[in-house]
Write a structure and sequence with these properties.
- The protein has 413 residues and is of the alpha/beta class.
- It is 39% helix and 14% strand.
- The protein is built from 16 helices and 13 strands.
- Strands 6, 7, 8, 9, 10, 11 and 13 form a seven-stranded mixed β-sheet that branches. Strands 1, 2, 3, 4, 5 and 12 form a six-stranded mixed β-sheet that branches.
- Helix 2 links the parallel strand 2 and strand 3.
- Helix 2 packs antiparallel against helix 11.
- It is globular, with a radius of gyration of 20 Å.
- The two termini are 32 Å apart.
- The relative contact order is 0.19.
Length: 413
């Protein structure tokens, strides 16, 4: 096999795979487990996604093993919350009820559970660059937001950064509010995100996974929000080719949750390992997903077509979102977080814009398939070189952990 250049994305996919392999070697099932004297303590972590689609959580799982010298291992349980729109709510409740030790969910879901302290993170077009997302995650803001989780009987260990979500569409790029008018647009379950979609004149749906793929195929959904890495791994370019390159609606930000009772039964040292791993994952999280320029060419080859909104379009979007901000800012804490993020925004460089390759604009004939979910069950195909690097580096680990082949499943979001 020829030498493969290790891009950051290739290294990060290897991190996610390594975490799954390490977790599998520790055991299976729900709850806190230890196999006896000298055996590692295995803590279960419920996740909606497979690790290749949730790199920050995968890094956290790996880091716990590193800090503990293998004496504590995290078993990631992808798809634990189910595939309907309540998946993330189910994970929060599962952690609160001690059905699992830990969980990983998007911060967006908490406003559907009565906790609004995280809404500023996904206020529309507020956090609109990776440098700003990194600055917010590194600030004191996430720790203040985590305090609100006490009412749900869970403990938040950290907020992690994830990909910036762009508008993606079936028939035409979504540039101005007029392009959104009357379409059905999919965003994950969140009161705040649904309100933002509706403010642009679209109907909001919280379909995801295979149900979303079927709805796109059947013409029931005309738009969705994804970051580019998830868009690629989910194989959505043939069915939804139009990406608005310079509009970042919001980031997906993730909370690592723990059951307070499970935490209290750990030793002080074990708790410190979890806290340190969560802090380390938060610190590195944005860098795991920000290298979108490395996959744009592959996306174009797969059928994606990128376009930039004009300054007038951007102004129109921001004006349309004004009622959303008026609603969010009725909560004094949310208003203070928005102001703090805006202050960080003024002092943080926005970073280089995404470059659209030649020939990647305009229209593209869509690839039609008889299988309505064909595009959503790929095995995490980021690029041939990425997979080659990942699998070439993990052959030895995989051979010693056969259980893990079932855990590296398709990316469905």
């Amino acid at each position: 096999m020829p030498a493969v250049r290790r891009t950051p994305l290739a290294r990060l996919a290897l991190v996610s795979l390594t975490a799954v392999l390490s977790a599998c070697s520790g055991g299976s099932g729900d709850g806190e487990k230890s196999g006896g004297s000298g055996a590692p303590l295995v803590l279960t972590l419920a996740s909606r996604d497979d690790p290749i689609a949730d790199l920050g959580t995968a890094y956290f799982a790996q880091r716990v093993g590193e800090l503990s010298g293998g004496s504590v291992q995290i078993e990631v349980l992808p798809g634990w919350g189910g595939t309907d729109p309540s998946a993330e709510q189910n994970i929060v409740r599962g952690v609160a009820d001690a059905k699992v030790d830990l969980g990983s969910v998007g911060t967006r879901v908490f406003d559907t559970l009565g906790v609004r302290s995280f809404q500023a993170l996904t206020a529309p077009m507020l956090i609109d660059s990776y440098p700003l997302e990194e600055a917010v995650i590194a600030s004191d803001i996430p720790d203040e937001m985590l305090e609100g989780l006490a009412t749900l009987k869970v403990t938040g260990l950290a907020v992690l950064g994830d990909g910036l979500r762009k508008p993606i569409a079936v028939e035409r790029p979504l540039l101005s509010p007029a392009d959104w008018e009357g379409i059905t647009f999919a965003a994950f379950r969140s009161e705040g995100q649904a309100e933002a979609v509706q403010a642009l004149g679209a109907r909001s749906t919280d379909l995801w996974s295979s149900a979303l793929s079927a709805a796109i195929f059947n013409g029931e959904v005309q738009g969705l929000e994804n970051n580019l890495l998830v868009y690629q791994t989910a194989g959505r370019a043939p069915s939804a080719p139009y990406v608005t390159a310079n509009v970042n609606l919001w980031p997906r930000t993730v909370v690592i949750l723990a059951n307070p009772g499970r935490l209290s039964r750990l030793t002080d040292e074990q708790q410190e390992w979890l806290q340190q791993a969560a802090a380390d994952a938060a610190a590195i999280s944005t860098s795991l997903v920000e290298h979108e320029d490395q996959i744009v060419a592959d996306l174009c080859q797969a059928g994606a077509r990128l376009a930039n909104a004009s300054e007038a379009d951007l102004a129109g979007l921001r004006a349309a979102f004004a009622p959303v901000y008026a609603s969010l800012e009725q909560d004094p804490q949310t208003q203070s977080f928005i102001l703090a993020i805006e202050e960080l925004k003024r002092s943080t460089p926005s970073g280089a814009p995404l470059t659209i390759p030649e020939g990647c604009t305009g229209s593209e004939s869509q690839v039609v398939t008889d299988d309505p979910i064909a595009g959503s069950w790929t095995t995490g195909k980021i690029s041939e070189s990425l997979l080659a690097a990942t699998w070439a580096s993990s052959t030895t680990m995989a051979s010693s952990a056969p259980c893990c082949s079932r855990s590296v499943k398709a990316v469905r979001n």
